[in-house]
Write a structure and sequence with these properties.
20% strand, alpha/beta, phosphorelay response regulator activity, CheY-like_superfamily, transcription regulation, phosphoprotein, Rossmann fold
């Protein structure tokens, strides 16, 4: 018999916490509840959490801040459940590393279904810790990269940027998305271009004619590799 998954609910609305707790427990989940980011971080340190469902607007740190904090050290699946339905909020949530964004008009049944879907994808992803693009190979678990069989000397941030791009080939990441995710929104376009330039010096045969990390002019960057 499989061990029940534990979902961390983070919301300052007690009614939402109680409603979602009831539905999740009926579906066989264990539930941990927190009314703010501080209590959520305490729960993450205290017990194993398999999935986080969090609101954006909360006392103290926002849900965006909490998502950024979690992503610095963990790949635990994160879903936003928010009353905010603006596209920019959704884009920001995904750029910070969220796995899904659900508007609170959704039924509890839909929320549970989407939690299950994210957990299924996460389970498959854990078994795919090597991204093999032929010449370029990234081992996410060992935190190692190689080009033509030779190890690459990447800084932790360079490795994280490369992996984030490579996990979603041909998806464009804007300058602001990269800045928000890797520099907490501090800096500007130049900050991103300098780091991408240094990364290209290490992974590209000809950095002035890159084949892996391609510039989408005026927008950002995308990764052009094809998985083997």
């Amino acid at each position: 018999m499989s061990t029940p998954k534990t979902v961390l609910l983070v919301d300052d609305d007690q009614a939402i916490l109680e409603l979602m707790r009831d539905f999740l427990e009926d579906e066989g989940f264990c539930v941990e509840a927190a009314s703010d980011s501080r209590k959520a971080l305490e729960a993450l340190e205290r017990i194993r959490i398999d999935c986080v469902l969090l609101d954006i607007m909360m006392p103290g740190q926002s849900g965006f801040d909490l998502c950024r904090h979690i992503r610095r050290t963990s790949e635990t699946p994160i879903l936003f459940l928010s009353a905010r339905d603006e596209d920019m909020d959704k884009i920001r949530g995904f750029s910070l590393g969220a796995d899904d964004y659900i508007v609170k008009s959704a039924t509890p049944e839909e929320v549970v279904a989407r939690i299950k879907a994210v957990l299924r994808r996460s389970g498959r992803k854990q078994h795919e810790h090597v991204l093999d693009f032929g010449q370029l190979v990234l081992d996410l678990k060992a935190h190692e990269a190689s080009l033509d069989g030779k190890p690459l000397s990447l800084t932790p941030k360079e490795f994280d940027i490369l992996c984030s791009l490579a996990e979603y080939p041909r998806q464009v990441f804007t300058y602001n998305q990269l800045l928000d995710r890797f520099w907490d929104g501090v800096g500007d376009k130049h900050t991103v271009t300098v780091h991408i330039g240094r990364l290209r010096e290490k992974v590209e045969d000809n950095p002035s004619l890159p084949k892996w990390i391609v510039n989408v002019w005026g927008v950002g960057y995308r990764f052009e590799g094809v998985r083997k």
